């Protein structure tokens, strides 16, 4: 796990090595162990390293292979690298390191762009071929690892976060008004290739971008999720067996591919608790687990220790739990926002940030339960969508998910786009799924969530907050083979039994009944949901600042309505609408105004 950066130019220009060097400090926390820059003509590559595999200098990046003329910067983990390495060695390739990075280099030398589809893992990389003068940019199927792009008339820059691109200079920081419509509709999700900034885009998950020496671009989708039942019927027991086998493989892969200890983020819910059980069954020794909790509010408890403690006790883990007072949440909030590559509305971002800080003092790699709710139908809005009968697929979806519909968007934004962009985007995405990739509405909903919405909400949040402390988070529930199996499974095995039915069947007997039979929980940070006291004053100051007034994103009367009664304005999925406004403005002040 690392931070990558670089520039590729065409024509008779040479890459700006200084610009690449300017990007590396913004990536330092992603990779605290080493750094490096490599340049040759039209390409310059930069890297910050977090050492997980092959801890020696042989695995430093940028990695250049003089035999093939290939140079690479890579962020992520390739779980099948040993299998690929063995195949490449049989084909005559010789290796000078023992980790996964060099496998990508040799794999490209053997298979060209076809290497991307052979990689099983989470990754974003840039590979420059000095002989053909081409560059290949690639991102994993589930979008677990980020890759941001900034184009100019004569070249392209790329990095693991937006901060690095802004620091490189010459990037347009203006707001994208269409992206704002998506941001405030989809719970801070701006689907790739857009970001909220006009001058920065991101490579879509499951895609690679090949750019030739003359600047000609080839964007290719190498993976697409299909949510259709197999031709031959499978009974419920066999589905359960397939899911259990796939999850066990996913956990085992993420334990084995590391030359450092691997822990687990244990929230006390079904997903992370099941990871602990399976990790122990797969041979994890002296497993370390970590839980964070916050102060209670009258409406909601702030910790789930009562559920995480019995799991840790049952599996005899080396368990650490941390209670964070509200005063600490507010004091550290600016740090969490500074770690966000894009605005994030989820209240648990600061929770992950503070948890990652604690965990990073003990391990460099953790497994986390993100993705289980989207893959296996765990959220409360999925049954509501399934039961909805009025309207087409898009109307059934937005009625139970959108944070704001288009009429409210026109009350919020001072300069809204002329059309209902979020609604049009949703209708187009669901139409493509309905045509040839989903058997039912709920199949389409879950496929859209796991391939698009999750990427720019919980997955990005976990990556940003853990990497802020040089901590690598691995997400077994988003193993693409497991996701493919689950997508083909009938919806009743997901939505049944209050959600995640098949996971509950797998977990029964492995986990305490109290964990399985409790109502669905969410990472609780009550102070950012029920806004009052110091938190309300913080948001009032942000939205009333001179920078906010001059930026003029929001209509003042809408802002005042929320400030007057913050506890009365929640989204359909229970987010604070006031927090959304304050977070975006604070993010812009932290990143764009500073740049």
From TrEMBL:
Task: Report the sequence similarity comment from the record.
Answer: Belongs to the asparagine synthetase family.
Q: Identify the residues that bind L-glutamine.
A: 100
The Gene Ontology biological process terms listed for this entry are: asparagine biosynthetic process
* Superkingdom of the organism of origin: Bacteria
Q: Which UniProt keywords apply?
A: Amino-acid biosynthesis, Asparagine biosynthesis, ATP-binding, Glutamine amidotransferase, Nucleotide-binding
The record lists ATP as bound by 265, 292, 368-369
Q: What GO CC annotations are associated with the protein?
A: cytosol
Q: Where is the active site?
A: 2 (for gatase activity)
Catalytic reactions on record: L-aspartate + L-glutamine + ATP + H2O = L-asparagine + L-glutamate + AMP + diphosphate + H(+)
For the protein in the UniProt heading, the enzyme class is ligase
Query: Which pathway does the database say it acts in?
Result: Amino-acid biosynthesis; L-asparagine biosynthesis; L-asparagine from L-aspartate (L-Gln route): step 1/1
Read off the Pfam families from this record: Asn_synthase (PF00733), GATase_7 (PF13537)
EC numbers listed for it are: 6.3.5.4
The molecular function terms in GO held by this entry are: asparagine synthase (glutamine-hydrolyzing) activity; ATP binding
Q: Which SUPFAM superfamilies match?
A: Adenine nucleotide alpha hydrolases-like, N-terminal nucleophile aminohydrolases (Ntn hydrolases)
Name the record gives this protein: asparagine synthase (glutamine-hydrolyzing)
Which organism does this record belong to? Thioalkalivibrio paradoxus ARh 1
CDD domains xrefs: Asn_synthase_B_C, AsnB
Q: Which residues form the Glutamine amidotransferase type-2 domain?
A: 2-214
């Amino acid at each position: 796990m690392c931070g990558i950066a670089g520039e590729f130019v065409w024509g008779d220009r040479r890459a700006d090595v200084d610009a690449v060097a300017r990007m590396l400090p913004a990536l330092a926390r992603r990779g605290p162990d080493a750094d490096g820059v490599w340049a040759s003509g039209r390409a310059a590559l930069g890297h910050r390293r977090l050492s997980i595999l092959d801890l020696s200098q042989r695995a430093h990046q940028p990695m250049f292979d003089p035999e093939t003329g290939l140079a690479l910067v890579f962020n992520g983990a390739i779980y099948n690298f040993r299998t690929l390495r063995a195949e490449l060695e049989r084909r005559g390739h010789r290796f000078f390191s023992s980790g996964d990075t060099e496998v990508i280099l040799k794999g490209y030398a053997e298979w060209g762009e076809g290497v991307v589809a052979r990689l099983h893992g989470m990754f974003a990389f840039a590979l420059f071929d000095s002989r053909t003068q081409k560059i290949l940019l690639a991102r994993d199927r589930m979008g677990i690892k980020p890759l941001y792009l900034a184009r100019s008339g004569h070249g392209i820059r790329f990095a693991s976060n937006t901060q690095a691109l802004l620091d490189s200079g010459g990037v347009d920081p203006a707001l994208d008004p269409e992206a704002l419509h998506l941001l405030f509709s989809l719970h801070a999700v701006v689907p790739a290739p857009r970001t909220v900034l006009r001058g920065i885009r991101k490579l879509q998950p499951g895609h690679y971008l090949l750019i030739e020496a003359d600047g000609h671009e080839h964007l290719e989708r190498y993976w697409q999720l299909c949510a259709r039942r197999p031709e031959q019927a499978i009974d419920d027991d066999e589905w359960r067996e397939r899911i259990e086998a796939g999850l066990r493989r996913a956990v085992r892969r993420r334990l084995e591919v590391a030359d450092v200890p691997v822990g687990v983020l244990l929230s006390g819910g079904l997903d992370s608790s099941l990871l602990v059980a399976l990790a122990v069954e797969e041979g994890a020794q002296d497993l370390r687990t970590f839980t964070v909790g916050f102060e209670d509010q009258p409406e909601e408890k702030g910790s789930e220790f009562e559920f995480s403690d019995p799991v840790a006790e049952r599996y005899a883990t080396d368990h650490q739990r941390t209670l964070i007072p509200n005063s600490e949440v507010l004091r550290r909030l600016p740090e969490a926002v500074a770690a966000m590559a894009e605005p994030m509305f989820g209240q648990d971002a600061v929770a992950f940030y503070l948890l990652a800080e604690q965990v990073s003092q003990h391990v460099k790699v953790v497994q986390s339960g993100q993705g289980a709710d989207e893959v296996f139908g765990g959220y409360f809005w999925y049954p509501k969508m399934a039961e909805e009968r009025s309207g087409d697929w898009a109307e059934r979806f937005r009625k139970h998910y959108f944070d704001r519909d288009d009429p409210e968007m026109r009350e919020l934004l001072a300069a809204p786009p002329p059309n209902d962009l979020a609604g049009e985007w949703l209708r187009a995405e669901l139409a493509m799924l309905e045509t040839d990739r989903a058997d039912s509405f709920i199949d389409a909903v879950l496929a859209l969530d796991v391939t698009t919405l999750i990427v720019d909400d919980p997955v990005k949040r976990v990556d940003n907050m853990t990497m802020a402390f040089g901590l690598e988070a691995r997400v077994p529930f988003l193993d693409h083979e497991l996701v493919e199996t689950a997508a083909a499974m009938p919806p009743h095995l997901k939505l049944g039994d209050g959600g995640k039915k098949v996971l509950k069947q797998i977990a029964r007997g492995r986990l305490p009944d109290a964990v399985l039979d409790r109502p669905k929980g969410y990472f609780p940070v009550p102070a950012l949901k029920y806004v009052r006291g110091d938190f309300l004053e913080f948001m009032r100051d942000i939205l009333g600042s001179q920078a906010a007034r001059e930026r003029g994103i929001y209509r003042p009367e809408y802002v005042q309505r929320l400030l007057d009664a913050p506890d009365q304005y929640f989204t359909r999925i229970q987010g604070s609408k006031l927090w959304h406004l304050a977070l975006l403005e604070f993010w812009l002040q932290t990143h764009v105004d500073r740049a």
